[in-house]
Amino acid sequence: VQLVESGGGLVQPGGSLRLSCAASGFTFSSFRMSWYRQRPGKERELVATITSTGGMTIYADSVKGRFAMSRDNAKKTVYLRMDSLKPEDTAVYYCTTAAAPGYWGQGTQVTVSS
Question: Over the stretch 61-76, which tens digit does the pLDDT of each residue have?
Answer without folding.
Answer: 999 999 999 999 999 9
